[in-house]
Amino acid sequence: MKIALIEPKPPINVYFFLTQLPLLGPLFLGTQLKNAGHEVKVFKEDMVPVYNEKTDELHPYLKEADVVGFTTITHTIKRAYMIADAIKRKYPGKKIIMGGPHPSACPEEALEHADQVCVREGEYVALDMFEGRNNDPIVHGPRVDINDVPIMDLNILQGYKYREKRVRMKYAPLMASRGCPFGCTFCSVTWMFGGKYRIKDSDIVMEEVMMRYKEGFKKGFFYDDNFAAKHDETKVLLEKIIRADLDFTWSSQFSVHVAKDRELVDLLKRAKCQTLFIGVESINPEALKDMHKSQSVKMIKDSISTLLAAGLRVHSMFILGADSDTEETMEETIRFSKSSGSTTAQFSILFPIPGTPLYDEVKAQDRIYINDWQYYDGSHSVILPKNISPLKLQQKLIHAYRHFYSRKTLHWLASRVGFFIWKILNKKYMKYLRYFSRRLKKEGILKDGVLTLRGLRTDAIPRILPEVPRRKMDGQTP
Ligand code: B12
């Protein structure tokens, strides 16, 4: 059987420098399907696009493929639907299966464009779905034993190799665990993979590291959401990496708790961990509480300084716009990002990922004013913040980047150019935001402590960002 697995490209690629990192679902499942004897091609659209919407042309392999699978997050779901619809239009008999975080949270919506949807993990159900033994429209994937997950065969990734030379992928994709013991309200990981942290046998991880190293990779990225949730087991793996003595640096995501264990920090440094991506989110204690972060402001500050003092790089990730955030608290967080000495920083606007407690909460409160999934990426304001206008919040995000990256001329220049381009690409969004903020000012009321707009009903907002009505229609609900 011929199988195509597609990771659609995002509408605007703000992560262009990191886009060599493919989502691992298609690589794990594709390897499994290949091992079962199928011909598998994985298309990460940033590398090899599969659809030209201007000419309505599909990649030739999609004609040959018997089954087409999609892996998508909320931000890329619209393109997944567009490509799936084009496939169905041209080849009506072709089977389409969708999976990934967004279809898992919204399976009925995805079924309007696919024959089957996989909810949560795919490894134990994919073979039956692709080979046609399980034809249920919605298939719930059980939690897998991650030691059963095969070592990825990167050769199935189209565009990965060019004339036997590796191109585009700088970081070897690796994964040593699944799940997260924390329950941050905005994150879909605990819902997708569970609160029980599953860690891979360190020998299997080492086998994969060695394989990537032999393939020529000098850098790696562990896709774990919390690389060191179980300190003792992580230490076993780190000791093995140190013993292997490779010319190989790597990075991963961590919680601030990592720095409480000095031995662990020391091992990370010796194992050539380069950058720790830390979920700081805010230094407003109330905002941390809102988001159910299991960390205090003191822990954040201690953690960053300990890691930096150990010679590690810290990429701090911040979230602006929690319910307890005011302009002042956000300013404090922004000032802290720079004074903390963090090597790099990333700022997001709080946004509701379907499936998360935050999504259910703001939906029930009718605070979603943009339903268009393409804006669900953390760089757009889509829900009514409590203490600031949506437009001001958007401007705060831009200000945060400018402030943090003002240290070095090159960074300053890059952030200016970056946002200039962002604004051009987001003309429609900015126009809508201005219009919406104007209406909010005119009609907004405070009800039970929540800012609401008269007549705003989350479920009545269209899925496509509405055009801004002409001035005379300003009074009407969009
Ligand atoms: C690595 C990573 C990145 C990388 C690159 C990812 C990429 N190519 O898009 C970087 C750092 C660039 C990144 C950026 C962003 N990310 Co990110 N990222 C991840 C991370 C940590 C790992 C992804 C991964 O490979 N997981 C492991 C694989 C095995 O899981 P999986 O893809 O879900 O696949 C399993 C199932 O879903 C299912 N499945 C998947 N596809 C299919 C297909 C079929 C046919 C079947 C049957 C089954 C199936 O089976 C798979 C195996 O069990 C996840 C968190 C996580 N643990 O998943 C967040 C995550 C995917 N990111 C997320 C987000 C929101 C973003 C950003 C918008 C930034 C932000 N503000 O956080 C951007 C957008 C990037 C873009 N594409 O435009 C969210 C997405 C939630 C959502 N519903 O949209 C996640 C889930 C994190 C979270 N906080 O909730 N990200």
Structure description:
The chain is α/β, with parallel strands linked by helices and 478 residues long. The chain has 3 domains: 2-147, Rossmann fold (3-Layer(aba) Sandwich), CATH 3.40.50.280; 170-350, TIM Barrel; 364-478, no CATH class. It contains 17 helices and 20 strands. It has helices spanning 25-35, 61-64, 77-90, 101-105, 107-111, 126-130, 189-193, 202-214, 231-244, 262-270, 285-290, 297-309, 327-339, 357-364, 390-404, 409-425, 427-443, and strands at 2-7, 39-44, 51-52, 57-58, 67-71, 95-99, 116-120, 138-141, 161-162, 165-166, 172-174, 177-178, 198-199, 219-222, 249-254, 273-281, 313-320, 344-349, 444-447, 450-453. The strands form 6 sheets. The protein has a 6-stranded parallel sheet with strand order 2-1-5-6-7-8, with helices on both faces. β14, α9 and β15 form a beta-alpha-beta unit. α13 (327-339) runs parallel beside α15. The longest helix has 17 residues, at 409-425. It is globular and about 65 Å long. Mean pLDDT is 92; it is low at 473-478. Cobalamin binds at residues 10, 15, 18, 21-25, 28-29, 69, 71, 73-76, 97, 99-102, 104, 118, 121-123, 126, 129, 187-189, 192, 223, 225, 348, 353, 377-378.
